[in-house]
Specification:
Blueprint (H helix, E strand, L loop, with lengths): L1 H7 L31 H4 L12 H18 L6 E6 L1 H13 L5 E5 L2 H13 L5 E5 L16 E5 L1 E2 L4 E2 L14 E4 L16 E5 L10 E6 L1 H9 L13 E2 L2 E2 L14 H16 L2 H22 L3 E3 L11 E6 L4 H13 L16 E4 L6 H20 L6 E4 L5 H9 L3 E4 L4 H5 L8 E4 L7 H8 L8 E4 L9 H6 L3 E4 L5 H17 L1 H9 L17 E5 L3 H12 L3 E5 L5 H7 L2 E2 L3 H7 L2 E4 L13 H4 L15 E4 L8 H10 L4 E4 L18 E3 L8 H19 L25
Parallel strand pairs: 2-3, 2-4, 4-7, 7-8, 15-16, 15-17, 17-18, 18-19, 20-21, 20-23, 21-22, 23-24, 24-25, 25-26
Antiparallel strand pairs: 1-9, 5-6, 8-9, 10-11, 12-13, 13-14
Helix pairs in contact: 1-8, 3-7, 8-10, 9-10, 11-22, 15-17
């Protein structure tokens, strides 16, 4: 077969290009892959949005899904099925709270979630006669030792261990206690002998790839008899109650669900059930899952460095397949899974946190066999690279602060991340040579001398400079490119935050908010002195009209302002789309506008571009005749405005107000601007919002990880002419 053939050539893949990728990389063990060909638009097209689940249209959907569940799972007529709250966990705990107590209880478990049921029984229900029948990961406990006079809780398939029961033969027909089965990763993929099951639970998110949060409960006649004959000694919350006046609440099992469900999720479940029926029902689903398992079995047979976590071949799960990589340590396995994730080959296939280090690959019915066939060579390909040391842990230094989530993302990818300040002297001495990547904001200055000192050190490792933000004027790009060091930034993340700050400054200037606030604090009621002006009808000039400028332009236009632009690099079509006026020079913009906002980068050409003489060009009178004065906002880069000249303009009235978020020297110290009541400042906080910091961290960490793999996103790579110092095949993780 093609699968066997692919395994025969795996040995040569290490020296070849990466293999073709799976079409769908979703191999998570929960929530699991959607059915093949799934699209929300198609699957949810008949959803009764905004309708009650009690209305006929909603109730019929629920009833239809329960009927199809009964049909596909081949439930006996005297078994009841219902949707209950809180996924499989809610379903299991619901029956534990209401059924357990009159007999002893045995909890059989050999993986994480089964262990949770034992802890519930011991610590929450405090059952007096409780047996803990357990086994380590990879094997089953002695199921033949179960005393079936007890109620018995067990998992049919251990989702976190990849070990399933062989069959139902260990459950006697003449049992005294109830058999309570958590089948969340078994239902719809394994054959369940219903005559051996009194209670069964599962969730939509596993074998059918449904949505989370909804549990399924199936009760046999013996469980119903217990519900109606036993009254728990503890209070039962409404969300757990299955009886009414001492009898089974049949309404719950006839569509009248306990709590309000998501009708979209029900529609999604119906879509999965219809697909399952089209596959040939339960038998077809089991066959799909077994074909998937066969792909992995053949791969394991061909590679002696891998084995199943399950020791007995008859207990190997055909859904949550757990594997051990014998020749890699825990850190190396983490590196392997991170590489597969970042390569968009396989998501979420690391073993469960409590399980031995290895892989857990979902092989349920919704996974296509062809995707597993494509995944196997990739596992071998990356394994060989990790084993050979071609993919190693990188050292990343963060000198100016970064969101915790970004640091965690890089650590999760297997890298060492250190937050540490470096002095100017350390930078000048080439301290960065010991690091693969440095992440900075605006405070750290990577001059040509710093970069050259780093690159000239023997064995220098620095390959990536990452600017968490937009501006890179604190990095000498020419020196970085000459040294083969990639420079990446995060241009998308702070746009909205900077726009809102610039707008806040414009509004505060127009209404003299800062001046009024100062007066109130000093006990002055400056009502007459605080007559402001509207922004509507005024000309707003943009020096630079990139992403931030255009976003601010949309808001300003909505306020009724007239947009004027100087940006020699911008296509005319963008200007035309805004209905803006384009100017050939900066002085032309100043002559036309009473309000100016700066969105340019600092360069030798733009330094002190806005000086006293430039400010004097501003008209002071709006097109509508309003004598509103002249106003400038700079949330772009410090140094573009000559602060001494601007202070003089404020003093003589040429400039009505100035708002700066950025300064030529930061902190700004005793600036002459502070002598004016018409100056308002903020300490470089344009990107200082919770949302922006999280976005900046996510964007820059993603760019760093890609760059360290040798393939930075072009939207983040600043020095696009760079020839990276390290060839792509040698790039380490």
């Amino acid at each position: 077969s093609q699968t066997v053939k692919s395994h025969r050539v795996l040995a040569s893949l290490t020296h070849m290009a990466a293999p073709p990728k799976p079409k769908c990389p979703n191999f998570s063990s929960g929530p699991c892959a959607k059915r093949p060909g799934y699209t929300p638009g198609e699957a949810l097209s008949d959803t009764p949005w905004g309708r009650s689940h009690r209305a006929p249209i909603g109730l019929n959907k629920i009833k239809e899904s329960m009927a199809m569940t009964r049909e596909i799972l081949k439930l006996p007529k005297d078994y009841h099925v219902a949707m209950v709250p809180a996924s499989d966990t809610g379903a299991v705990e619901m029956v534990m709270w209401q059924l357990l107590g009159p007999r002893g209880v045995t909890v059989c478990h050999w993986e994480s979630f089964g262990g949770g049921w034992y802890e519930d029984a011991k610590d929450q229900l405090k059952l007096p006669k409780l047996r803990n029948l357990t086994a380590p990961f990879g094997v089953l406990p002695d199921m033949d030792s179960i005393d079936w006079n007890d109620d018995v809780i067990f998992t049919w398939n251990g989702t976190t261990s990849g070990v399933k029961v062989k069959n139902g033969d260990f459950i006697p027909a003449n049992r005294g206690g109830l058999s309570i089965c958590d089948a969340t990763s078994a239902a719809f993929a394994m054959d369940i002998p219903w005559d051996k099951i009194d209670v069964l639970t599962y969730s939509w998110q596993k074998c059918l790839g449904g949505e989370g949060g909804h549990g399924m409960l199936i009760l046999g006649p013996r469980a119903v008899e217990r519900l109606e004959s036993y009254k728990p000694t503890i209070p039962i919350p409404k969300i757990f109650r299955l009886t009414k006046k001492g009898k089974l609440d049949k309404g719950i099992f006839n569509g009248s669900v306990i709590n309000t469900p998501s009708m979209a999720c029900f529609e999604d479940y119906l879509d999965a059930l219809k697909w399952a029926k089209g596959c040939g029902g339960l038998d077809g689903l089991i066959a799909r899952s077994m074909r998937n398992l066969d792909v992995i079995k053949k791969f394991v047979e061909a590679n002696d460095w891998m084995e199943f976590l399950a020791k007995d071949p008859l207990t190997i799960s055909n859904t949550s397949v757990c594997l051990v990589i014998k020749d890699l340590d825990k850190a190396q396995v983490k590196t392997l899974t991170a590489m597969l994730d970042r390569s968009k080959v396989a998501y979420d296939i690391g073993s469960y946190r409590d399980a031995p280090a290895g892989l857990r690959i979902w092989c349920g019915p919704t996974v296509e066999t062809s995707d597993l066939e494509a995944l196997m060579p990739w596992i071998s390909y990356v394994h060989d690279k990790v084993k050979a040391g071609s993919i190693k842990k990188m050292k990343i230094i963060v000198t100016d602060g970064l969101a915790a989530g970004a640091i965690k993302a890089m650590q999760s990818a297997g890298h060492e991340v250190v937050k540490k300040k470096l002095s100017k002297e350390e930078l000048a001495a080439g301290a960065l040579a010991d690091w693969d990547c440095i992440i900075i904001r605006s405070a750290t200055k990577l001059t040509a001398a710093v970069i050259q000192a780093t690159a000239s050190k023997p064995g220098s490792k620095l390959r990536v400079i990452a600017r968490a933000g937009v501006g890179v004027d604190n990095v000498d790009l020419k020196a970085a490119s000459a040294a083969g060091i990639m420079v990446v930034n995060s241009p998308l993340s702070a746009t909205n935050s900077v726009v809102e700050l610039a707008l806040a400054h414009l509004l505060a200037q127009a209404r003299k908010i800062v001046y009024a606030d100062r007066g109130i604090r000093e006990g002055k009621w400056l009502k007459n002195e605080c007559v402001g002006h509207e922004l509507a009808g005024k000309n707003l000039g943009f020096i630079g009209f990139g992403r931030i400028g255009q976003s601010l332009g949309r808001v300003a236009k909505a306020l009724g302002m007239n947009i004027h632009v100087y940006d020699p690099f911008l296509p005319q079509a963008v200007i035309d789309n805004f209905g803006a006026t384009r100017h050939a020079s900066v002085p032309d913009v100043f002559r036309a506008c009473t309000h100016i906002t700066i969105h340019a980068f600092l360069s030798p050409q733009t330094k002190h571009m806005v000086n006293y003489d430039m400010i004097k060009l501003m008209p002071g009178v709006a097109p509508d005749g309003t004598k509103c004065g002249n106003h400038i906002v700079n949330c772009g880069r410090g140094g573009i405005i000559d602060e001494v000249g601007a202070a003089q303009a404020l003093k003589d009235g040429s400039l009505g107000s100035l708002a700066l978020d950025v300064f030529e020297k930061e902190p700004c110290g005793k600036s002459p601007l502070l002598e004016s009541d018409n100056f308002q400042g903020s300490p470089h906080v344009g990107a200082s919002t919770i949302e922006a910091q999280n976005r900046v961290g996510a964007e820059i960490s993603g760019a760093v990880l890609a760059a360290l793999d040798g393939a930075p996103p072009m939207g983040n790579l600043v020095n696009k002419d760079v020839q990276p110092k390290f060839d792509k095949p040698k790039a380490r993780m």
